[in-house]
Design a protein that fits this description.
Structural class: alpha+beta
Shape: elongated
Largest sheet: 8 strands, antiparallel
Distance between the termini: 106 Å
Number of strands: 41
Strand content: 15-25%
Number of helices: 42
């Protein structure tokens, strides 16, 4: 059977490049590049009703037309009288005796044996067959069988209507010698003795064209069969003309003739063993035995066929196509029907031609006369162009249009014209026939109508139409053949006028006006059509050598609005045969004979014409050119075959460059905002066939499959290519290395840029792979289903969309990975590229600038933090170094006195040496938390700068980038007929790669931005620690960090174990377990209760799911929840215990209020005051004089306002004191204190009050000065002994003092102070942390916590501060304290000054001289010192007066036992 592929209709003439696109890509690239098509536009109800009414009216018109046609046909059929066919009498049945006596044929000087004369009809017989006996033998020779034959009509289209006309048998046997089978459309013969490799009983057939077939009962045909003993061939002739010859298959002289003495020839419809066949008639069946004269030749056969037939009327024979009787006539019946109407009607109603007059006048249309066989391939037909051309003078030139051949162009034409004019127009041109058209006399010799003045070079250029270019190759080939054929030629074409502009202004009718120009400068022509003397126009033949100016033949009238067929034919004189010429207008003929004796000489012997001048707007078919004189009947037959088809050809809508309404296209809207801007493409990477598979059985099974293919698909009668049969890997193979340059599917290997790198593979249009069934490439057919096979590694489909409203380019990528051994992996990704311009771009730039400003502020803050950290560490180290150097210098001065200059040099070396600098850096690095925070901030700032630097220029250039890429795809000239297919494809893939690079780069930048945002999110979470109420998340994570870390390790282990088991067990058939990554994703969703689909249908999967549910979902997940809840409760407890905590918004309001008051009242900056307060250690309260003595307040009133404002905070109230120290509020602590007092009283020991302890310390200081001046060894020894003694309490120290000499009591008392100081340090380290966290600075105590809040900080043990007071408030905390240049005095000196400065200098001198006293840093005096006793409680009365209460009035005593402070846990740092 025959299978038709993709059948398409293209409403335009396709060029060779466009046709190449069809067979190579499976469709037009212009159609593929159309992209998204609009949705169908829904019509309204009124439009639908209007269309329905129009359709109904059109249907009524069609019905009326059909009814009229039907009426006419019935009218004709009713009056047509069918003449019964004339048949011969039936031939006799049984045995027919041949004439054994040879008869002479004088016409060819041969002898023949008459086998059956007739005429007789071979009818069906029921009892006996027809046999001819007595036929001569032609053994050792050859023979020719000649007969007249008439095949009765066979109307069954499925019946071949064949008959075994002649079958030769051996005597008394059914062994055949030879046979002749005839069908209505074929000849057959049989040689049962065939050798030379020819199969027995071969039946070589020759098809008969329909116009010459034997299916007719109106004409006798002559048939001759020649057994050529010289060539061992069988030759068949029909109507005296050679038809075909075939190899007999064995020597004719020895095998063709029967060898028996009395052979028989079966004759007729029935033969032995054959009971069916068509009914035929035979006349004058004869056999010529060749003998010594040899086979009959073509001339002898033609003579036999042309000999008179007494028993057959000449009118019953076939006619040559040159016979006048065979031509159609311009005739109409009484009803106005011409031959064309009968030709159309007879196809459906053959009886219409039973009209005797129609049968006689229309022999071709009614097939009433049979055309004799002729060699139809004797003449070649050439055509000027392909398709119908619209030639429309008036668009540029009103006088006519010029169609040039493809060897000339407009520029050359104008140049030649200008050169010709410049040389001067010769006299011969002015007297030529061509020039007569421009004469004004209007005589009959002058052509009337439009003509181009070929002397006007500018008009000549305007007249050239590029849409009707002539095929010079066809014209030159036609010219050469015509010259070789004595100058005979035939030119024919169809023409249709285009409206009123095509009507001749002189006659009011359409007359073809065209000139076949041999040259233009000077103008010459061999043939022209137009209006001269004859009213319907004429064809004029011009010759370059004839004395006559021209020969002309009149035309018939043409249609004013439809297609008209024009033909011009000329035959020159040959010997005694006169020349002739004729024109045909449709079937109307005009013939001339007498003046056509001389040969027409061409003006250009290489090309009959190089240009065509058309003077009126017309549609014109291709010009058919035949280098011979075609009979009129042949031209009429051509007209009848095409007339119906031509009526439906509307031609081109417009000429090239013209305007037309075109085909109306209804506006349709887009349903979706996205449109496809480029044809989807497919790209695949492939692997070469591997030499062997990984497994041995894999190689074995490939060989087995290959063997089966050889035994089935490639077995006889089929065959396979040698490379397929010899190489098993051509059928099936395992994948090897990647393909480098081997073509695949008709495509060369190419590099395609994807994801920033070039990948070697094969790119094609998706429509080329999916739409057609097969493609034709590299000379072979490829089935599109073969594009992806077992060697495909990765295939991906890319689609590019554009959103006009959002200005976003989207690339949708569907990627299938076939390289996996388990299953194919299909992923879908969507990438976007947004175009920014105008106001959107301006807004984007402004936002990016603001981002950079914010980054600049972050960098300034980071730098400031680092500077403060360095300054703080430098100050602390400098203070410690100065103290250590002072003590050391005093000791060395006593032991080895040095000059002041030497001491100064040592101090400078200690401060500025490399060791000192390294120490500073080491101390700075110890602040890990601060450095980590600043490092994170710096990293975020750096990432943001990089992102903006990359993104901002890209967005500013996004409009140009989109125009270059997306616009580049739209600007590819897909519909170009000149641009080659491979050039279009190369431009597309290059532009596509650029677009993908742009989008991938955009995607990478977005991924980088996502990284920046993640870092910023983590930093934001860290920033929530600025306030205890916001620090819930961070605090919870910090407290639960250890448990979470170990829980994470457990979860990862469980997930990996379950992931490995799930991938191994279920990955082969479940997509959600196909690899470890997807399995872990599935397990993650199971953690939240989303189980796999159909998990309970498989026992293994069910057990797996339940086990995971129990271990992870029920146990581990609840472990995590318990850890998080426990940590959260701890954070909540800390917040409840924190006294300084306020509501977040209230803290913000307090901070801004403090800044505003500081600006108005002249308060010092938080940084300055914080640096000062950080040096005040062991303070329970701060008074007016403390603030005023800092020197940072402008006026005393500013101090008062400062104290008033911060006194409004409840948690900053001064701690109440009794005579022993701070009042105790905790009941347990009160019980412990009362117990201590009672025990002391019972033991006879008195607990000192704060005042008594201070007096004792002052007395001890005075004694110490005296001892320092004497420098006695005993005192030093006693002091050393005291230094090495155990650490007693205050009471035990005084008891010890009472047991030693009076001189040593001060020393023993002093030695107790450092022990109390150490106890205080221990108390700070082991306390609840509340006081220390609230204070935030060493030595400030609980009251210092209030001071921290005074500077905009809600003290909570965390280091994040608000607003621009981050640095200053941090200075108020111990771990971020810095020392300014104005705070260089030891803290003991400032503390001893107290409120009124009593005892200050003594205490300072005491500490300065304590070179051998074991104590802490000079910045950390003992709680038992007078500085603590001299602290003033702040009261409203004294605050109002700007004064402080005296120490004796404010504080009675301080607890002597430091253990009591340890119990308080108030943070005594």
């Amino acid at each position: 059977g025959l299978e038709i592929g993709d059948l398409r209709y293209h409403p335009t003439a396709l060029t060779s490049n466009q046709i190449e696109e069809l067979w190579f890509n499976g469709g037009s690239l212009g159609d593929m590049a159309t992209g998204s098509l609009p949705e169908m536009h829904a019509i309204s109800d009124i439009e639908a009703l209007q269309g329905s009414v129009t359709a109904s009216l059109s249907a009524m018109d069609d019905k009326q037309t059909e009814r009229k046609v039907s009426t006419d046909i019935n009218f004709v059929l009713d009056r047509a009288e069918a003449s019964p066919p004339v048949h011969s009498s039936p031939a006799p049945t049984g045995t027919i005796q041949a004439n054994r006596t040879a008869t002479s044929d004088a016409d060819i000087a041969r002898e023949y044996h008459s086998l059956y004369f007739g005429p007789g009809r071979l009818t069906e017989t029921t009892t006996d067959h027809r046999f001819i006996e007595g036929a001569p033998s032609f053994a050792q020779s050859g023979a020719t069988v000649s007969m007249w034959y008439k095949h009765h009509a066979c109307t069954d289209p499925f019946d071949s209507c064949g008959v075994f006309l002649l079958v030769a048998y051996e005597q008394d046997s059914l062994d055949t010698c030879w046979s002749l089978w005839l069908e209505k459309t074929k000849f057959w013969f049989d040689n049962p003795k065939a050798t030379d490799g020819n199969p027995t009983n071969q039946y070589p057939a020759f098809g008969i064209p329909e116009r010459f077939n034997l299916n007719t009962d109106t004409a006798w045909r002559h048939i001759a069969m020649v057994f050529n003993e010289q060539t061992d061939e069988v030759e068949l002739y029909m109507d005296g003309t050679f038809v075909v010859k075939e190899i007999w298959g064995s020597p004719v002289s020895s095998t063709a003739s029967c060898t028996s003495a009395n052979p028989r020839i079966s004759f007729g419809r029935q033969a032995p063993g054959y009971t069916y066949g068509a009914e035929v008639e035979v006349y004058d069946l004869r056999m010529y035995v060749h003998g010594l004269q040899g086979p009959l030749g073509p001339e002898e056969i033609r003579t036999i066929a042309g000999a008179p037939t007494p028993d057959i009327d000449a009118g019953s024979k076939c006619l040559e196509n040159t016979a006048r009787e065979f031509e159609e006539q311009e005739w109409q019946d009484a009803y106005g029907h011409d031959c064309s109407w009968y030709a159309t009607t007879a196809r459906e109603f053959p009886a219409a031609c039973n009209f005797p007059e129609a049968s006689a006048k229309c022999p071709i249309s009614c097939a009433s006369r049979q055309e004799c066989w002729r060699d139809a391939a004797s003449a070649n037909a050439y055509y000027s162009w392909s398709g119908i051309r619209r030639i429309e003078p008036g668009l540029q030139s009103t006088s006519g249009s010029l169609c040039l051949d493809d060897m000339h162009n407009k520029d050359d034409l104008v140049r030649e014209c200008q050169e010709w004019i410049a040389d001067g127009v010769p006299e011969a041109v002015l007297s030529s026939e061509w020039y007569q058209s421009f004469k004004a006399e209007g005589g009959t010799e002058d052509r009337r109508g439009r003509r181009l003045d070929l002397r006007d070079c500018e008009a000549l250029a305007l007249a050239v139409e590029e849409d009707c270019m002539l095929n010079s190759t066809a014209i030159r080939a036609f010219t050469r053949e015509a010259e070789d054929n004595n100058g005979d030629f035939t030119i024919a074409f169809w023409m249709r006028p285009l409206g009123e502009a095509a009507i001749n202004e002189h006659t009011g009718t359409f007359i073809p006006h065209l000139q076949f120009l041999s040259s233009l400068s000077p103008p010459t022509h061999n043939l022209g059509l137009g209006l001269w003397a004859n009213p319907n126009g004429e064809a004029r033949f011009f010759s370059a050598c004839d004395e006559r100016k021209f020969d002309n033949i009149e035309l018939k009238s043409a249609s004013n609005d439809g297609w008209t067929f024009f033909a011009v034919t000329r035959k020159h004189k040959r010997g005694d045969n006169d020349g002739e010429g004729a024109t045909l207008t449709n079937i109307g003929k005009q013939w001339e004979g007498s003046p056509w004796q001389s040969k027409q000489c061409l003006f250009n012997t290489e090309a009959f014409f190089t240009a065509l001048e058309v003077n009126y707007p017309v549609l014109m078919s291709p010009i058919m050119m035949v280098a011979s004189h075609l009979p009129v009947s042949s031209l009429q037959r051509t007209y009848q075959e095409l007339v119906d088809e031509m009526q439906f050809k509307s031609g081109a809508a417009s000429a090239l460059g013209g305007e037309t309404d075109g085909i109306a296209v209804q506006k349709r809207t887009f349903a979706a905002p996205m449109i496809l801007v480029a044809p989807p493409m497919m790209f695949q990477t492939r692997a070469e066939p591997a030499e062997s598979c990984p497994s041995t059985f894999g190689n074995t099974i490939i060989k087995i499959q290959h063997k089966q293919m050889l035994q089935t698909q490639c077995a006889f009668p089929f065959s396979c290519d040698n490379n397929v049969t010899s190489s098993p890997d051509m059928l099936l193979a395992c994948a090897g290395d990647a393909v480098k340059d081997t073509p695949q599917f008709g495509l060369p290997a190419s590099d395609f840029r994807d994801q920033g790198s070039a990948t070697r593979g094969y790119a094609d249009f998706l429509a080329s792979v999916t739409d057609p069934v097969f493609l034709f490439r590299d000379g072979r057919l490829y089935e599109t289903k073969e594009f992806i096979d077992t060697l495909t590694q990765v295939a991906q489909v890319l689609l590019v969309f554009w959103n006009p409203e959002a200005s976003i380019t989207t690339v949708l990528t569907v990627r299938a990975d076939f390289a996996s051994t388990s299953s194919a992996k299909v992923d879908v990704s969507v990438d976007h590229y947004e175009l920014l311009e105008g106001s959107a771009l301006d807004t984007y730039v402004i936002v990016q600038i603001l981002v950079l400003v914010n980054v600049a502020i972050m960098l300034i803050d980071i730098g400031n933090n680092l500077k403060n950290a360095v300054l703080r560490v430098v100050a602390e180290r400098r203070a410690k170094a100065e103290e250590a150097a002072s003590l050391k210098s005093e000791r060395e001065a006593r032991m080895h006195p040095q000059s002041p200059m030497s001491q100064t040099a040592q101090m400078i070396t200690a401060k500025l040496g490399p060791t000192a600098i390294l120490g500073v850096l080491r101390d700075v690095c110890k602040s890990v938390g601060e450095l980590l925070r600043d490092l994170v901030d710096f990293t975020i700032a750096l990432l943001v700068i990089v992102y903006v630097a990359e993104r901002l220029p890209a967005k500013m250039a996004s409009a140009d980038t989109t125009e270059d890429t997306v616009g580049g795809l739209g600007q590819i000239d897909w519909a170009s007929t000149e641009l080659k297919r491979e050039d279009k494809v190369a431009i597309f893939f290059e532009t596509m790669s650029d677009l993908l690079d742009t989008i991938r780069e955009e995607s990478n930048i977005n991924a980088f931005c996502n990284l920046v945002l993640v870092f910023s999110l983590l930093r934001l979470i860290k920033c929530t620690s600025m306030h205890p109420r916001l620090a819930l998340l961070q605090g919870t994570l910090v407290k639960a960090w250890d448990d979470l870390w170990h829980a994470a390790i457990l979860i990862v282990l469980l997930m990996l174990c379950f992931g490995g088991i799930g991938t191994w067990r279920f990955g082969g058939y479940r997509e959600d377990f196909s690899d470890l990554q997807r399995t872990c994703q599935t397990l993650f969703m199971m953690t939240f209760g989303e189980f796999p689909e159909a998990w309970n249908e498989n026992m293994d999967l069910q057990l797996y799911t339940v086990l995971y549910f129990m271990l992870v979902f029920l146990l581990v997940q609840n472990f995590l929840l318990a850890v998080i809840v426990e940590a959260y409760m701890g954070v909540r407890k800390d917040n409840e215990d924190l006294e300084t905590e306020q509501e977040f918004m209230l803290d913000i309001a307090s901070s801004f209020t403090a800044h505003w008051k500081a600006y108005r009242k002249g308060w010092p900056t938080p940084h300055k005051l914080g640096s000062e307060v950080a040096l005040w250690e062991a303070r329970y309260s701060v008074g007016f004089n403390d603030m005023w003595n800092t020197g940072w307040f402008r006026t005393r009133e500013a101090v008062v306002e400062f104290m008033k404002y911060y006194h409004s905070f409840e948690f900053l109230d001064p701690i109440p004191f009794d005579e022993y120290g701070p009042e105790i509020k905790d009941e347990k602590e009160k019980m412990a204190h009362d117990l201590e007092l009672r025990l002391g009283k019972a033991m006879g020991l008195k607990i000192q009050t704060l005042k008594e302890f201070a007096d004792e310390k002052l007395q001890f200081a005075a004694e110490r000065r005296r001892l320092k001046q004497t420098h006695t060894l005993a005192q030093a020894t006693a002091l050393a002994a005291a230094k090495l003694s155990p650490a007693p309490t205050s009471q035990s120290a005084r008891s010890l003092a009472g047991q030693i000499s009076p001189a040593m009591q001060p020393i023993a008392a002093v030695s107790a102070a450092p022990r109390a100081d150490m106890a205080r340090e221990l108390g700070r380290a082991n306390g609840s942390g509340k006081g220390e966290a609230g204070a935030g600075s060493a030595g400030v105590g609980e009251t210092a916590a209030g001071q921290a809040a005074n500077f905009g900080v809600s003290s909570s043990g965390n280091e994040i501060v608000l607003s621009d007071m981050v640095s200053a408030s941090g200075q108020a905390q111990g771990k971020r304290a810095g020392v300014t240049d104005g705070a260089k005095l030891p803290a003991a000196t400032q503390a001893a000054a107290g409120s009124n400065g009593q005892h200050g200098p003594e205490v300072q001198k005491f500490w300065e001289g304590a070179d051998d006293t074991p104590s802490v840093s000079s910045n950390r005096p003992s709680r038992g010192s007078q500085s603590l006793a001299a602290e003033l409680a702040f009261s409203n009365d004294s605050m109002a007066q700007g004064e402080a209460q005296a120490p004796d009035e404010a504080v009675s005593s301080l607890p002597a036992n430091p253990l009591w402070f340890i119990q308080q846990g108030q943070g005594l740092a």
